[in-house]
Amino acid sequence: MFQLFYREMEKREEEEKKDEKADTLTIGQVAYRITYKTKSVNDTTKIPYRYRDDDMRLDIGQNGVSRFYSQSMVIRQEMLKNMYKSGGGFDLTKVPKGGSIGWELYKNYPAEGKTLQLDKVGSDKYQTEEPMEVPEWEMVPDSTQEILGYQCQMSKTRFKGRQWNAWFTEDIPLDEGPWKLRGLPGLVLKAYDAKLQYIFDGAGLEQLHGEEAVTLVNEKREKISQKDLRKLRDRYDPSAALAASGVKVISVKNADGSEGKLPNKMISNSIELE
Question: Which of 2, 128, 173, 269 has the fewest CB atoms inside 10 Å of its own CB, making it the most exposed?
């Protein structure tokens, strides 16, 4: 990890003004909110893994629409936005850890039976619309575990290029779970892939009775497939992208304070591999 301090040019200022004018749509009212303590691995070549932490939220609407997103990322973005407005530059040492997962996933939106994923590569924004799929689950016999006070059973599946294990509870009869993991006779409270590169561990469950909204920022995004999105990430050059956008880099420092340099390749490990 490194700390990057730079001065924004006119193009970035224009983008900031556009962001402030973006509409936030209310697409449902939250019935249930589940928080998952999440660990993910970005660089799979480094063993043992160096995990990144997030507090992921699953907001389930009364109308069946749900939103899965990083609350840690929301907090970080708000702090960075305030730093930018203050004119003092970006100092990541003052920003709380977490917020490494930048994508958001909506289920049953923009229509019933559809999913919408919002993502970014650099400063470019994308969206992927797909039919909502149901993994083919295989129940694991004689497997029980208590999570958040609920008795859970284990099931497993091969889905989107990963082998997944999931713990669900029939005491909460919601066809929902973290990311795209659904299709079980109860809410998924814990899930992890076989290589332990993504771990979702249920840490909190609230019934909000519609007191808060399921929201979506309505802004211009390019439509793209998951396959093409992964290709873009593989080709993305952070150094070239900053130069092309008119950003002048003042200095780059590694986490230990030593001088560093911008990478010319994005390291990523998509949750969806195929």
Answer: 173
Model confidence pLDDT, tens digit, residues 108-125 = 999 999 999 999 998 899
- Secondary structure (H, E, C), 97-152: CCCCCCCEEEECCCCCCEEEEEEEECCEEEEEEEECCCCCCEEEEEEEEEECCEEE
Looking at this protein, which amino acid is placed at residue 230?
R
- Report whether 176 contacts 182 (CB < 8 A): yes
Those residues whose C-beta lies under 8 Å from the C-beta of residue 221, and which sit 6 or more positions away, are: 118, 125, 126, 127
Confidence category of residue 5, pLDDT binned at 50, 70, 90 = very low
Whole-model pTM: value is 0.84
**Residue predicted with more confidence, 153 or 1:** 153
CB 3 within 8 A of CB 92: yes
* % of the chain beyond a pLDDT of 70: 76
What size, in residues, is the chain? 274
Separation between Cα atoms, residue 116 and residue 105, nearest integer Å: 6
